[in-house]
């Protein structure tokens, strides 16, 4: 099971546990707790809790210490969806492939369910015995600020319906409506560890980029994805005459913008994780997604690669593993990363079918052209040795100093 699926299962279990622990209401035909459960346990990507768990893991925080924050951010998100679906706001009737809360229980109960989830989110953090009191104060302050920003973004969203707006207003709206809770999700993991200001600053920049990319992608999916996959009505923005990135800059340019932002995110992620830790993470992810064993050796430990160079070098590593999974039929891969006096050296050896030496120059057909271009851009060297039936060795050498890239 992939680590993100593990996080998703974990937060689902915790959410169910928290909601089930709410005492029953005597002499009541319908339980507010059950109305809340209807929306919370309906499914969803759990993207925000996954971000909290992921960032907490970067700082080696114990996963159970992040449970309350992961649940709290999701409860705030679900409360916002319940209210967002109300007739007074977006008037949606489908959410997560089931009727929206107010369609089942009525508007009044849906409003109360949202109110209850918001209160429960703060209660979960404040009563967590695993988190120190001073950290709780920081977490609750962060959550309250982010929740207000989300509501403010919703307000802007309602105010621009049927109006022509520019990208600056749309970006500001998205940064609040969507980005605020994503930013909070990411910062939660750092605050739990009491991370230093530099790491928090890097994570905040990462969160801002991620929030924008996420919302643009959501706008794109609203146009391109059918109801049953989207979990809600397709083209809902256009039907309600709400401004979106595709309606302002077009679908193609919206997709290009998401890709550009995603590319800009990579150096920030590597800066926080550390290059060697990123190699380890990628190796583990590679093994999770394939049947190939990957052995990683780094010498010396804790190598710090220049931020600009680390992005391209990491992409070389990713593309190499991708080629192995697609073409080599290997069962084992051995990766060595060395820091020399004046250069870095990456060696990747697999035990697959091997590359015919006569075809090595056909780099494009082998999927190796991108690797070569990245390495040569840094005045590095690429060497490939293949023996049919015995595997392939890729050796990359890149100078430490930027020689006029």
Describe this structure in words.
This protein is α+β, with helices and mostly antiparallel strands and 405 residues long. The chain has 2 domains: 267 residues, Farnesyl Diphosphate Synthase; 125 residues, 2-Layer Sandwich (Heat Shock Protein 90). The protein is 60% helix and 11% strand. The chain is built from 17 helices and 7 strands. The chain has a 5-stranded mixed sheet with strand order 3-4-5-7-6, with helices on one face. Strands 1-2 form a two-stranded antiparallel sheet. Strand 1 and strand 2 form a beta hairpin. Helix 1 crosses helix 4, helix 7 runs antiparallel to helix 8 and helix 7 runs antiparallel to helix 9. The longest helix has 28 residues. The radius of gyration is 24 Å and the shape is globular. The chain starts with a helix and ends in a 6-residue tail after the last strand. 35% of the residues are buried. The mean pLDDT is 86.
Summarize, please.
With 405 residues, the chain is of the alpha+beta class. It is built from 17 helices and 7 strands.
Compute the number of helices: 17
CATH superfamily of the largest domain: Farnesyl Diphosphate Synthase
Second-tier CATH architecture of the largest domain: Orthogonal Bundle
Main β-sheet description: 5 strands, mixed
Structural class: alpha+beta
Name the average pLDDT: 86
Query: How do the strands line up in the largest sheet?
Result: 3-4-5-7-6
Question: Which percent bin holds the helix content?
Answer: 55-70%
Number of domains: 2
Query: What fraction of the residues are assigned to beta strands by DSSP?
Result: 5-15%
Straight-line N-to-C gap: 41 Å
Succession of helices and strands: HHHHEEHHHHHHHHHHHEHEEHEE
- CATH topology group of the largest domain: Farnesyl Diphosphate Synthase
**Residue ranges: pLDDT <50 for 5 or more in a row?**
none
SS elements, strand count? 7
Oligomer: single chain
User: Over the alpha carbons, how many angstroms does the gyration radius reach?
Assistant: 24 Å
Tertiary shape: globular
The first-level CATH class of the largest domain is given as: Mainly Alpha
